[in-house]
DNA sequence: GAGCACTGC
């Protein structure tokens, strides 16, 4: 390795050496690494009432290709279909089938505590369908799209039907349901959307909430809503006004959770019974360090080589907080791996994090060649979203990155992204990744005391997020954030901040009533701020431009990814898109150029164009889908989305301002900016094309708090634009 | 003059 790599290497601090040791020295050190490991102990088995056991997986692994390709061909193949039926029949879960059906029939709510690999998610809906007691639809919610689609494909195949007939799914941008669909897998966000049109979820006889322990924002909305709906539809809940009402269309609710939180769910649903379903997880031996490690990268490096040299074959999965750590550890591992003696197996290093291009993500699924060992460096993505085969050893840094929204009474608050300690349930989940295929080993780079003092499970998202969208969505179903029976109640500052934002947008009036404008905002699958921008574009005759920009801003990937090694080259390549007004028009220029490339070039031409210009094709593709969805919604609302302002810059900026009222700041003499609607002094992020430009007034997409409070996604606006908004100028005076 | 865990409509 060249010396450049050495500079990026983690310090082998606890070895007390500053030079790079020879491979022999390193291996010797690794056998006595200063991380002494206490005797292995078996992962605690759950003291469960064992009901059933299954050979099956809850979640088929990441599908290679589309769900259709994976399963519908199989369903056409008679032999494969018979095999599937044979598997189903032989599942031990079949023995528990009747008791499951009975319990659900005699209770409004049933909690199922299912271990990993128990097969509950694929089998239970089929049991309820085949049992014949329910004639409406059965909904099964999932936090992730890929789970919803692949589960639907699997269950459809087990039913011997084409996907989208008896069994279907519904996720954003993709839906496979028919008139005869009885089992529907959908994302929890999709069910929240459906509630906005059908607040009592009348088309469902059964709603199964899977992975409830993850406590996503949308899961919590679903849980709170279900409690309300039960009172209204079944007439026996806490809502006394609903008592005595006809139970013509009662609802059954099943909550599936993977952790001991089941008790909390049971309590929330007034002592609902808890059923335990045994899984098929292999035992995992857990090791702790004897003393706490100040440098988890160093500790991970040593532990890896210790495993590599002393332990039998099996791939190693290392959990780290973020991309930065992954890149650093990767370069250290490579350097030492290249110096290993001949008789030690090769090391294949793979990284895995969400923003990694798909091609490189796919590397982790390639089978490990004989006489080598794969070492996967991953973020939390490998904890729930992606299951990697062949992993036998897990190294757990005990750290993760956590996003947290800091609400402010004044202004709209900002997000932080900080490295924090993981939770007990997260540690257990990580360890479990070693026991998918056989007896596994988990090396925790922290002490047993540290584990014991970890909090039990992650703080629900509802306590950490901006609630603006949620507040608006609840208003549409006639509910109030303050009166919803949340499992965990968000604090007043957070609620007040959401309330204030919606009032400023004119989504609610002075009496907190939803306005017609607010109702329109909620129709769009966008942050309310961007929905307001979109609706404002009609007045300014620039819907075509605004739609592209809003779609890009809503994409989950950044348009201009930061590539530290090629930063200057990237900046140069992107210069041609630059627009003097700032980042929004610059983004639009990229999208317009991409549109032209798409019209003239094929798949590989588009890809090359993106690479050559250092723009993220994933962001453009996603924005393309979002824009198509927005166009469809506009058509239904009779809005002409083709209205264009050409190259006139003001209409787009004035539309943006309509949504970003809380994100306006004015230049101060010292070159910093002062928020108009809040107390903060902010700086323009150095990645912005407006940095150092000293524009008198700016709007920005978001604030991020790192070394400073930075405004990102910035455009310059005229002060006269700001004067058009009485609420904004009123605030300034007060 | 900088640093981005993961989802979702």
Automatic annotation (TrEMBL):
Pfam families: DEAD, HA2_C, Helicase_C, OB_NTP_bind, WHD_HA2. PANTHER family: ATP-DEPENDENT RNA HELICASE, ATP-DEPENDENT RNA HELICASE DHX33. Its EC number is 3.6.4.13. Residues 101-278 form the Helicase ATP-binding domain. InterPro entries: DEAD-box_helicase_OB_fold, DEAD/DEAH_box_helicase_dom, HA2_WH, Helicase-assoc_dom, Helicase_ATP-bd, Helicase_C-like, P-loop_NTPase. The keyword Glycoprotein does not apply. This is RNA helicase. The lineage of its organism: Eukaryota, Fungi, Dikarya, Basidiomycota, Agaricomycotina. The keyword Hydrolase applies. Residues 300-478 form the Helicase C-terminal domain. SUPFAM superfamilies: P-loop containing nucleoside triphosphate hydrolases. GO terms for biological process: positive regulation of transcription by RNA polymerase I. Belongs to the DEAD box helicase family. DEAH subfamily. One of its GO terms (molecular function) is ATP binding. Keywords: ATP-binding, Helicase, Hydrolase, Nucleotide-binding. One of its GO terms (cellular component) is nucleolus. PROSITE patterns: HELICASE_ATP_BIND_1 (PS51192), HELICASE_CTER (PS51194). It comes from Russula ochroleuca. Gene3D superfamilies: 1.20.120.1080, P-loop containing nucleotide triphosphate hydrolases. It catalyses: ATP + H2O = ADP + phosphate + H(+).
């Amino acid at each position: 390795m060249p010396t450049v790599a050495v500079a990026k290497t983690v310090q082998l601090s606890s070895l007390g050496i500053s030079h790079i040791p020879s491979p022999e020295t390193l291996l010797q050190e690794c056998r006595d690494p200063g991380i002494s490991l206490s005797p292995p102990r078996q992962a605690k088995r759950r003291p469960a009432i064992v009901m059933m056991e299954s050979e099956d997986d809850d979640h088929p692994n990441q599908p290679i290709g589309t769900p259709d390709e994976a399963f519908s061909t199989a369903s056409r193949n008679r032999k494969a279909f018979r095999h599937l039926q044979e598997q189903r029949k032989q599942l031990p879960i079949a023995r528990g089938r009747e008791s499951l059906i009975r319990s659900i029939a005699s209770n409004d709510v049933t909690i199922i505590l299912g271990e990993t690999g128990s097969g509950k998610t694929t089998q239970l809906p089929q049991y309820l369908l085949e049992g014949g007691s329910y004639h409406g639809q059965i909904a099964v919610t999932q936090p992730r799209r890929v789970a919803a689609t692949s589960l639907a494909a699997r269950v459809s195949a087990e039913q011997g039907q084409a996907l989208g007939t008896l069994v279907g799914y519904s996720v954003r941008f993709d839906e496979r349901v028919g008139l005869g669909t009885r089992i529907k897998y959908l994302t929890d966000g999709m069910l929240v959307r459906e509630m906005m049109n059908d607040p009592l979820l009348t088309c469902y006889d059964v709603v199964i909430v899977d992975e409830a322990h993850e406590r996503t924002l949308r899961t919590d909305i679903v849980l709170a809503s279900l409690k309300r709906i039960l009172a209204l539809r079944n007439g026996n809940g806490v809502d006394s006004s609903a008592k005595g009402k006809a139970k013509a269309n009662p609802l059954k609710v099943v909550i599936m959770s993977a952790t001991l939180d089941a008790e909390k769910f049971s309590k929330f649903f007034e002592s609902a019974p808890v059923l335990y379903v045994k899984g098929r997880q292999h035992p995992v031996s857990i090791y702790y360090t004897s003393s706490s490690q100040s440098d988890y990268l160093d500790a991970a490096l040593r532990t890896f080589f210790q495993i590599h040299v002393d332990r039998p074959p099996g791939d190693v999965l290392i959990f780290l907080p973020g991309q930065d750590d992954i890149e650093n550890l990767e370069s250290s591992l490579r350097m030492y791996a290249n110096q290993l003696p001949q008789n030690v197996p090769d090391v294949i290093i793979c990284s895995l994090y969400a923003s990694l291009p798909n091609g490189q993500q796919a590397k982790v699924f390639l089978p490990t060649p004989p006489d080598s060992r794969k070492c996967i460096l991953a973020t939390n993505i490998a904890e729930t979203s992606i299951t990697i085969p062949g992993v036998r050893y897990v190294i757990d840094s005990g750290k993760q990155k956590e996003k947290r929204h800091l609400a402010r009474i004044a202004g709209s608050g900002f997000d932080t992204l900080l490295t924090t300690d993981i939770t007990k349930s997260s540690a257990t989940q990580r360890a479990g990744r070693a026991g998918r295929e056989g007896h596994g080993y988990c090396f925790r780079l922290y002490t047993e005391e540290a584990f014991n003092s970890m909090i039990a499970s992650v703080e629900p998202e509802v306590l950490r997020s901006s609630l603006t969208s949620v507040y608006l969505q609840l208003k549409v179903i006639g509910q109030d954030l303050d009166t919803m029976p949340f499992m965990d109640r968000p604090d007043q500052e957070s609620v007040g901040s959401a309330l204030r934002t919606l009032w400023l947008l004119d989504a609610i009036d002075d009496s907190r009533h939803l306005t017609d404008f607010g109702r329109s905002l909620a129709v769009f699958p966008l942050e309310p701020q961007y929905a307001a921008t979109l609706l404002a574009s009609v007045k300014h005759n620039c819907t075509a431009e605004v739609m592209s920009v809003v779609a890009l801003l809503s994409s989950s990937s950044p348009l201009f990814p930061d590539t530290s090694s090629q930063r200057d080259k990237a900046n140069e390549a992107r210069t041609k898109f630059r627009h003097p007004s700032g980042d929004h028009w610059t983004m639009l220029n990229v999208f317009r150029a991409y549109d032209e490339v798409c019209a003239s070039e094929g798949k590989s031409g588009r890809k090359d164009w993106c690479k050559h210009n250092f723009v993220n094709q994933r962001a453009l593709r996603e924005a393309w889908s979002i824009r198509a969805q927005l166009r469809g919604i506009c058509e239904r609302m009779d809005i002409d989305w083709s209205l264009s302002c050409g190259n006139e810059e003001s209409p787009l900026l004035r539309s943006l301002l309509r949504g970003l009222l809380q994100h306006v700041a004015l230049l101060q003499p010292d070159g910093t900016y002062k928020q108009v609607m809040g107390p903060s002094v902010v700086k323009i992020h150095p990645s912005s094309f407006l940095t150092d430009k000293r524009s008198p007034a700016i709007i920005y997409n978001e604030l991020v708090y790192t070394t400073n409070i930075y405004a990102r996604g910035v455009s310059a606006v005229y002060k006269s634009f700001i004067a058009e908004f009485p609420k904004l100028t009123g605030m300034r005076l007060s």
